[in-house]
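Hey,
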Amino acid sequence: MKAKERKTKLITFFTCFLLLIALLVPVHFSMADDHGKKVKHGDNHEGESGEGLLGGFRGRGHDEGNETTGQMVAWSLAAANLTVALSILIRGLKGFVPLAPETKNTLTKFNNTQKKYLMKFHYLLNPVILLVAIVHWTLSRCKSTAMPEWGLLIMGTIVILGIILKFKLCPSDLLRKVYKVHTQPIIFILMITMLLIGHLSMD
């Protein structure tokens, strides 16, 4: 059973890694292509259209981001999900690193303690962060890529699923499926990846 769980964890890790590479490579070429067009045509993007694999993700035009709300979202998101990051890290250490039983017990106790005190902030802050993120999106203009919008959509989905879990807003059978989706690390990594790449690729 442990071998099967270890195999599942390895598959999850490599899936996340390949997903990140798959997103970074086309964005790299997209940014290089945009840079080449700017050298030839200056800042005028009128009449250009997105082509190729990123046609649905790329846009054109001058980008403006509201820095104040953006910084609020970034730091608050990190603080609110610190408990989740610590829990994933501890599970990874226990699953992949050969540790003594005493060390594993200590890590388990620490994980239970930190979740006891920090999960309340996770529940309270994430819905507020989503609202601030929506405000940030309305105050910003991003025509170079649609990835921030996709990241925001995924964030909203995760938060809504979390609210459903917290208040048990669906039958118990469906609640288990909601829990699996909400706690799926690939979805969280996809959200962070899209937000990071989207903001880095803005003009």
